[in-house]
Structure prediction request, 517 residues.
Amino acid sequence: MDGLCKVLIVEDEYITRQGIRNMIDWNAAGFEIVGEACNGKDALAMVEKLRPHIVLTDVVMPVVDGIELEKALRAKHPEIPVVVLSSYSDFDYVRDSFQSGASDYILKPTLSPDNLLKSMKQAASRIPGLTLRGRRNRSLAGAVEKLLTGFAGEGTRKQLAGAFREDGFLLVGTDLSRLFGRDAEAAERQKALLARAAEQELSGFSCEHLVVNESVLLLVVNFRLSEKESLCGALRRAAEKIAEQEPRTFYVASPVFSDISRMKEIYGGPFLRNLDQFFYYKNRHFMAAEEFRKPERQARFNLLEYTRLLDALQVEKALDLLEGYMRRALSARWPGEMELKTLVQDAWYQLLSVLEDQGLNADSLSYLKRECLLKLYSCSYADEFARVFSVLQADFRTIVGKYKVGGNGGTMRDILRYIDGHYGEPLTLTSLARRFNFNYSYLSAYFRSHHSEGFSEYLNRERIRHAMELLRQGTLSVSEVCGAVGYTDQSYFARVFKKETGSTPRDYRRSCRKAEG
Prediction:
């Protein structure tokens, strides 16, 4: 059995997988990476589909870890050698790995091209009938990825220089994760649509497809600079064809460049920056670099002033400040989508915290807490984001107005006025909290912090003040006065009365009569 030895990499950290993929020239050494999985469960499914010769796996992973993966492979595919990677030097992990049947064990801190290749060759040597045959026709897409991710050595640079003969370069791509989220089928469909459209419209140009960082579907085009206009027309037609089947299509072209060594700089700079701008360009399917309106950089949101206004309970002014900034930001198309969404989310969560501190337990607060994050991040385009922002801002203003949240003490005055008018009823802190949409524990602290005494002290003082007036009038008995001012227990009423006045209700009435006589 001659040919390339097929390898499946199982590792939950993408950066580590990327490093392994680019650490050595796998094809030249006789290996081929046929797949990558981020946990043991996915790996087991891929083993059935891809039939790798060797599995290179991490130990500590979510869902199904490397030890469980090894045990499952030993039971079902004992012919597949397993090479284990781990950050753990603990003996128990090493012992469990080898008891499960691992062929070799490599500590990540010691991972190098030499010891990785040595372990892989040792594992391959245990496969009956397999003879490693290196191939020098290395993947051009792999070489481009190495250049973009900083793993390109001299051999890779020579390979690229030999493959790309023309004097012009253009990067064209789309962000699969941003457009399709976790819809893996839509992402795969987009890859197929691009390949078909490129075959139809770009057959006269040298192109290479790849996916960078598991997200960006990238097309590297090498062309004669004199054919720039023709190329841009072909790219636009290709994007429109794709959009006929997938309306969410949005492709961006980089500035043209002539030196291949600038590819990493162009990719990480203007290309990715423009790719992030699709938020502001609804219904556009292809945009060349020169078509983007340069974002008007403006002053950042004044978070200190916003916080100061909230601390002073000047909530309406704080909302005005946020609204004004958002209006300017959307008009200027700056900052980027995620920065904009994060800013608004943080500002609203800060406001929600203030409203909670005011003791509001209204259902609408729970609604806003849930909807802020969900609705904001579901917006794909700026116009939709602006509509959601306006609706939620209006919801905040409604709550602020309804519950009189402000720095003028109005809420405290309303509470005192209500107590003064209902002291004769069975009034409790619980019923008062329900009446003013406070929670019980907060109202007690709020009352004391906004008044010179607590709720119970204030209520008793008001009841005794009215009781003194009724006793002076002399038309009601002591028991009738007790009930009229809200007490149900006459002995308790007498104790409270004496505490407040220094005498019992009966003694107080007698003293009043003596003073009048």
